[in-house]
Design brief:
Layout: E1 9-17, H1 25-39, E2 44-49, E3 54-56, E4 59-65, H2 71-83, E5 93-97, E6 113-117, H3 121-128, H4 131-148, E7 151-154, H5 157-166, E8 174-176, H6 194-199, E9 206-210, H7 219-230, E10 237-241, H8 247-254, E11 260-264, H9 268-276, E12 280-283, H10 292-299, E13 304-306, H11 312-315, E14 321-323, H12 328-338, H13 343-353, H14 359-377
Parallel strand pairs: 1-2, 1-5, 2-4, 5-6, 6-7, 7-8, 9-10, 9-12, 10-11, 12-13, 13-14
Antiparallel strand pairs: 3-4
Helix pairs in contact: 1-14, 3-4, 7-12
Length: 378
């Protein structure tokens, strides 16, 4: 990496409010990267939402607008501020865009842009917003964003394969940088908090889904699989930690299933305690780039049952989980198989895997890529 006096400034556009801590995967990533930049004295500017500019070491928070009702509203405001000269980028800047639409405000600027794709947008967009908006994204923005990006970093092999297959002309720009987690944030004791354990009730096994409750997460599949399992394990409990557009649907389904527990959005430390008190983490998604909860579960020794999405095929082994088909009967069988895994083994292997999943490795590769992008543009 360049010497202290020659280091560029990393600029990250984000809709997050730095003063309001939420639990989304992208926000967790941005906060972790900012901490690494601060530790390395690398200048980093967050073009965020909020009302309070701040400076913490080498990390500057520069709000673009008070709050954004949608990502599109934020992107339009940022683009306007840049075009009108209301917002000036520091000299020797490089933009880190966490999705293609965050490239758009910078299309007319001379700064190099590195796209760090946490997952291809169209598969999720097609599920959540429909074909028309997906088509608009693909025709108006996706190719253009990839064309102007200096490098395209991807969090998983599957995301890289998506871009290579769809845009072979850009294959030379693609580099895989897996997203890691912060081992120090995980509990070091494998026993859950007695209060959390007692609060979940006596019924076992406990199946946990943790994440945003959106259509691609496969809630109907998981619920149908648990219905199947309840015939053989009548004490089974399904715990759902998260919030999102399908929360109301889930509450309606839970009203006739007292064994479904809607925990809502929980602080991350509490999610970890619920993980320790659970028997299986369930990932029933139709599309994922990671997800981070997969890495966290492995690190905590919690067996995982997952559809073949994101990094599941790479990280799940016979000792720590089961890959499941996307049908209720097959998924139920996978859960039953995962419940037989030796938790002493999953815990030990999870502890050993933490070094490979450490976010420091992500930061090393990504910050190095950003610095190199500036050097290549000068």
């Amino acid at each position: 990496m360049a010497g202290p006096k020659n280091r560029p400034t990393v600029v990250i556009p984000t809709t997050m409010d730095w003063d309001v801590v939420r639990e989304g995967g992208t926000e967790t990533f941005v906060r972790a990267l900012a901490a690494e930049a601060r530790h390395r004295s690398l200048p980093l500017v967050l073009l965020s939402t909020g009302t309070r500019p701040s400076m913490d070491g080498s990390v500057e928070v520069r709000p673009v607008m008070d709050r954004a009702r949608t990502e599109l509203a934020y992107i339009r405001r940022l683009r306007t501020a840049l075009r009108r000269g209301e917002l000036a980028l520091p000299p020797r800047s490089v933009v880190l865009a966490n999705a293609e639409h965050y490239v758009w405000p910078f299309l007319t600027t001379p700064v190099p842009i590195v796209l760090y794709s946490h997952g291809a947008v169209p598969p999720t967009l097609r599920t959540t917003r429909g074909r028309a908006k997906t088509f608009l994204f693909e025709t108006a923005l996706e190719r253009r964003a990839l064309a102007v990006a200096s490098r395209i970093a991807v969090v998983s092999r599957g995301t890289g394969d998506y871009y290579r297959g769809k845009f072979p002309a850009f294959a030379g720009k693609i580099v895989e940088i897996p997203l890691g987690i912060e081992p120090a944030a995980l509990p070091q004791d494998r026993q859950p908090s007695p209060a959390v354990d007692a609060g979940l009730g006596p019924g076992r096994p406990r199946i946990l889904l943790a994440g945003r409750l959106s259509p691609e997460k496969g809630l109907p599949l998981l619920l149908a699989a648990c219905d199947e399992l309840r015939d053989r394990s009548p004490a089974l409990q399904l715990l759902v930690a998260g919030d999102g557009p399908m929360a109301a649907w889930l509450r309606r389904e839970a009203s006739t299933r007292p064994w479904v527990h809607c925990l809502g959005r929980l602080p991350r430390p509490q999610v970890f305690q619920v993980m320790l008190a659970s028997d299986v983490l369930a990932i029933a998604s139709s599309y994922e780039s990671g997800p981070l909860v997969l890495l966290e579960a492995i690190g905590l020794g919690l067996p995982v049952v997952s559809t073949r999405v994101g990094r599941a095929e790479e990280l799940i082994t016979d000792a720590n989980g089961v890959l499941a088909p996307a049908d209720a009967i097959g998924y139920a069988k996978a859960i039953a198989q995962a419940l037989l895994l030796d938790r002493d083994v999953t815990w030990r292997q999870g502890r050993e895997a933490l070094a490979k999943m450490d976010f420091t490795r992500t930061a090393d590769a990504l910050l190095g890529l950003l610095v190199a992008a500036v050097g290549a543009s000068t």
